[in-house]
Amino acid sequence: MTQPANQAQSRPDPREAVTSTLVPRRTSRDIRSDSRLDVLHAVLSAGETTRNALAQATGLSLATVVTVVGELLAEGIVEERKVTAGRIGRPTAMLGMNNARGLVVGIDVAETYVRACMFDAALNEMLSVETARDEHVLDSDSVVEAIGRTLDNLLAKAQVSRADVLGVGVALPGLIQGPDGVSVVVPHWTWQKVELEHLRERVGLPLVIENPLKSIAIAELWLGRGRSFSSLATVNLGTGVGAGIVLEGRLLRGATNTAGEWGHTLLVLDGRKCRCGRNGCVEAYIGAPGIQQTLREIDPAHPLADLDMQNDFIRALAAVADGPDPDPAVQETIARTAYYLGSALADLVAIMNPEIVTLTGWTTWALGEHLLPPTRQHLLEQAPRGSARDVEVEVSTVRGNSVATGVATVVLERFLVDAGLLTSNIPVAL
Prior knowledge:
Layout: H1 28-46, H2 51-58, H3 62-74, E1 78-84, E2 92-97, E3 103-109, E4 113-120, E5 125-132, H4 140-158, E6 165-171, E7 175-178, E8 181-186, E9 189-191, H5 193-203, E10 207-210, H6 212-223, E11 232-237, E12 241-247, E13 250-251, H7 283-286, H8 288-298, H9 310-322, H10 328-352, E14 356-360, H11 362-382, E15 392-395, H12 402-418, E16 428-429
């Protein structure tokens, strides 16, 4: 089969996102970039390490590791922290991330809140600020202002200026990248170039935007179980439902950056109406509103059935489940949700054949200990031909807001791209 030749094109405007339909040929620069990224991941994972240990962890030659470490030291991304005396030969320099290199901010924009988290250059979370949002107010001006106000509050709380921040990442649901630029398309949201330009101006710092599902997968790759597994799915449970997918060590984006919309795959033929307009989607059953709908079907008069805000409902459901007095309607709601989740995961596992599935998101943090055991069992029962027998299913080890963590990681990658250390397919840099 003949490989299509790359078409010549002018350098794109960095404020525009252009996706080629052709697979670019990998160059020696790309290979060096991958080596730097592998070393960086290994340093982050280890906390403190040596050049010899990095060579063993990455599979790179010691000469390559020495070269890459020198480049990262020159840019101030890693530092030599101390020298330890060995029993034989020269003393060994210990390497670690340079926490003081600068600050990065990740902002998770959800239907019910905007949460901004500040990290040092080693991706240690320093502090966070959350602004509650009325989930019924969805006009772009209100959302952009909520993002800007939350960032302002974070900087004020940290007592730092914008000059101290290397960049800001914003995770926006439904991010689509195509030849005509970037759109943010979710139910009741339709943003294009004008709204995104408004966001850039309001933030007032180097900005990248990313899809939340890609963000949680990136966080899992850098800081979670992705350091030990090459193929995984990270499933986010909240208002919406979706999966960040990594196959053979690479984040799956798809042709227009929409891969992972597992929440809008079919679970029940002609089932509940989903907010996307289809009937029977996974999200309509295991998204927070879907879980509340399940409770209404079990016990329409239950006091939790009419709670207006999703966060309030999930927290209240968890409180009852954790309490000393059994509530049959709540127990049955959780049991059915685990059945829906396990069945939907069985399809995901059959399609992508991951080594591990991790669960994250605010519904997971609240209900995970109740959902996980029955979900595992239903996955094993529903997965075709034993395809889930060796799949691990667990709550993600990435704590805090994994969306904000992931998009902050993209900011750090973007900084390294600008420094000339990485090549990248970061979807949008504004």
